[in-house]
Design goal:
about 475 residues; alpha/beta; Dipeptide-binding Protein, domain 1; four-stranded antiparallel β-sheet; 14 helices; elongated; binds adenosine-5'-triphosphate; binds iron/sulfur cluster; binds magnesium ion
Length: about 475
C-alpha cells in the first residue's frame, strides 16, 4: 500500500472500559476491552485485526463506528487531507513529548500548547466527541458487516427492506432511486431481482452475507468494518465471499478494517495487520513482514500455530503457559508478561505473580531446602507498593541467617527456567516487629507501541531501541521516499 495514499481513518489512544455492575459494591471496576489503541488506515487499504477471543477486536470495530461510545481517545475519519495530516503530526509530536522521562520546562510548555491546539481540533472533528446529529454526516461513509448480518434485523422484513434501510436512514435518496440502486446491488452480489422479495431465512449463510454486503455498500461508504464476516461460513463459501469483498474493494476504492481470528483469512485479505492482546496492539506492520519477520513474542506464539508449507522454515509451535488474564484485572507492566517466553525482570512482575511461587518456595514439604525457614502465618500483598510481607508465626531472634537463607532460595529459583519473576526482587528486609519480612519488587516498565523500523510497530521492551536497518532496507526506503516525493 503506497504511503502517498490519503489517510482515511486515524485512531488515537482509543479506550473502551465497560463498567462491571456489582450488587455488593457501588463500583465494580471495569473491563478494559480497549486500552489505548492507535493506528492509521489509508484509502483503499485493508488493516487486519487479529488476536485471541476477548482481546477487544469487536469492541474496536464498534467503537470506531461509534455504535458504542469510547471511554477516551479520538477517531478521526474522512477529514480534508490537510487537516488529517495536521492531526497526525500534532498527535505524533505529543506522543513523542509524552515519552520523555523528565521533560524540561520548555517541553512541558510545548505539550500544553499542543494539547490546547489538539483539543480544539478534537472537539470539532473526533467522532468520539461529536453530537449524534453531526455524526450522521460521517455515518454514511462507514458501514459495518457482521458475522451474521441478520441476527440483529427483523426476520419479517423482506430483503428489499433490509438493503434499503441504510439508504433510507442516511441519504436523501428517493424511493425510486433506492429501488433502482437495489436492483443494481442485487446483481452485483450475484443474486437476481426476484430475491429482493424473499425473506432472509430463505437464503443460505453465504447468500445472507452477500445481502449484508449489498446493504453496506448501498450508501456509497468509504470504510467497511468487517467483523468476522466469513467465520460462520463453510470454507468454500468463505473463499467466494472473500473474493467478492476484494473485487468490491478494488472497484470502489474502499478501506477495510478487517477483524478475524483466522490468521489465514487475515493473510489473504490484509495489507497490514494489527495483532491485539488484552485490549492493546502488540504489533502492527505489513502483512508479509508480520508473517515472516514478526518481532513480538505474542505474535511469534500466535503464528507458530500455523503449519508452514516450507519445511525449511518449519519451527516448533510455541505453547503459551497460563490463561489469558482478565481484562477486568490486567497484569502490571506488559499485559503479556505472565505468559511471555521472553519476559525480562522489568516486564511487569508484581506481588500477584510472585506470592504463590514464594509460598511454594518456602514450604518445606515441597522444597526441602527451606526446612530451616521459620513457620509462616500469611503472605500479604500490596500491589500498589509492589511489595509483599511474609508474616512469620513468631519473632525471630537472629534475623541475618533467615534473610541469608531467603536470598539463597530466591537466587536458586531465579536461575531456574521459569525464575525470571524472582529477578524482579529488589530488596528483602525485616520490619521492626521482627516477624515480618518485606520483599520489594522493582517498579515495572510499561511498553508502548513504537516504530522500531520503518512501518513496523511493536509494543515490547525488547525493542525499546530502533532496530538497525539492513543495507537493503536502507536502499529500499530511500528509493520509496524518492518515488513518493
Ligand atoms: N457490553 C459489554 N459489557 C461488558 N464487557 C464487554 C462487553 N462487550 C465486550 N466485553 C468484554 O470486553 C472484552 C473484549 O470483548 P470483544 O468482544 O471486543 O473481544 P473479541 O476480540 O471480539 O472476541 P471474539 O474473538 O470472541 O469475538 C471481553 O473481555 C468481553 O467480555
Ligand atoms: S515487554 Fe516484551 S519481553 Fe517483556 S513480557 Fe512483554 S512481550 Fe515479553
Ligand atoms: Mg468479536
Amino acid at each position: 500500500m503506497s504511503e502517498s495514499k490519503k489517510v482515511l481513518l486515524y485512531v488515537s489512544h482509543l479506550k473502551k472500559y465497560f463498567p462491571i455492575s456489582s450488587n455488593l459494591l457501588k463500583s465494580g471496576g471495569s473491563v478494559r476491552a480497549l486500552d489505548d489503541v492507535s493506528f492509521a488506515l489509508r484509502e483503499g487499504e485493508t488493516l487486519g485485526v487479529v488476536g485471541e477471543t476477548g482481546c477487544g477486536k469487536t469492541t474496536l470495530g464498534r467503537t470506531v463506528l461509534r455504535l458504542i461510545d469510547a471511554t477516551a481517545g479520538d477517531v478521526y475519519f474522512n477529514l480534508p487531507e490537510d487537516l488529517m495530516n495536521k492531526v497526525i503530526e500534532k498527535e505524533g509530536e505529543l506522543d513523542r513529548l509524552h515519552e520523555i522521562e523528565n521533560p524540561s520546562a520548555e517541553e512541558i510548555k510545548e505539550m500544553e500548547t499542543l494539547e490546547a491546539d489538539l483539543d480544539e481540533i478534537r472537539n470539532e472533528n473526533s467522532l468520539t466527541r461529536m453530537s449524534s446529529r453531526k455524526m450522521k454526516d460521517f455515518r454514511k461513509f462507514m458501514q459495518p458487516i457482521f458475522q451474521d448480518p441478520f441476527s440483529s434485523l427483523d426476520p419479517r422484513k423482506l430483503v428489499k427492506d433490509v438493503i434499503a434501510e441504510p439508504m433510507k436512514l442516511l441519504t436523501e435518496m428517493s424511493s425510486d432511486e433506492i429501488f433502482e440502486k437495489e436492483k443494481e446491488l442485487i446483481e452485483e452480489i450475484g443474486l437476481s431481482e426476484d430475491h429482493l422479495y424473499r425473506f432472509p431465512h430463505e437464503f443460505s449463510g453465504g447468500q445472507r452475507q452477500r445481502i449484508g454486503i449489498a446493504r453496506a455498500i448501498g450508501i456509497g461508504p468509504k470504510l467497511l468494518v468487517l467483523d468476522e464476516p466469513t467465520s460462520a461460513l463453510d470454507v468454500s463459501v468463505q473463499a467466494q465471499i472473500l473474493n467478492m469483498l476484494k473485487e468490491i474493494q478494488n472497484e470502489l476504492g474502499l478501506s477495510y478494517l478487517f477483524i478475524s481470528h483466522h490468521l489465514n483469512v487475515i493473510r489473504l485479505m490484509a495489507d497490514r495487520v494489527a495483532v491485539m492482546y488484552l485490549g492493546r496492539v502488540a504489533e502492527l506492520t505489513d502483512t508479509d513482514r508480520l508473517f515472516t519477520e514478526m518481532l513480538h513474542p505474542y505474535t511469534k506464539a500466535l503464528l507458530s500455530a500455523i503449519p508452514s508449507i516450507d519445511p525449511g522454515k518449519r519451527k516448533g509451535r510455541i505453547i503459551l503457559e497460563g490463561e489469558i488474564p482478565s481484562p477486568a484485572n490486567p497484569p502490571k507492566g506488559c499485559y503479556f508478561h505472565p505468559r511471555c517466553p521472553e519476559a525480562m525482570k522489568n516486564c511487569g512482575w508484581s506481588p500477584r505473580d510472585i506470592a504463590g511461587p514464594i509460598r511454594s518456595m518456602l514450604e518445606p514439604y515441597r522444597n526441602p531446602e527451606a526446612k530451616d525457614f521459620p513457620a509462616i502465618t500469611e503472605i500479604v500483598t500490596d500491589e500498589e507498593a509492589n511489595s509483599l510481607d511474609i508474616v512469620l508465626s513468631a519473632p525471630v531472634p537472629n534475623r541475618e541467617p533467615v534473610l541469608a537463607l531467603f536470598n539463597e532460595l530466591v537466587e536458586k529459583e531465579a536461575s531456574s527456567g521459569a525464575g525470571i519473576m524472582f529477578k524482579s526482587i529488589e530488596s528483602v528486609k525485616f520490619l521492626e516487629d521482627g516477624t515480618t519480612i518485606r520483599v520489594v519488587q522493582m517498579e515495572p516498565d510499561v511498553p508502548t507501541l513504537k516504530e522500531v523500523r520503518k512501518g513496523h510497530f511493536v509494543s515490547c521492551l525488547l525493542y525499546d531501541k530502533p532496530i538497525e536497518e539492513t543495507k537493503e532496507e536502507v536502499m529500499e526506503n530511500a528509493s520509496t521516499a524518492t518515488s513518493t516525493d
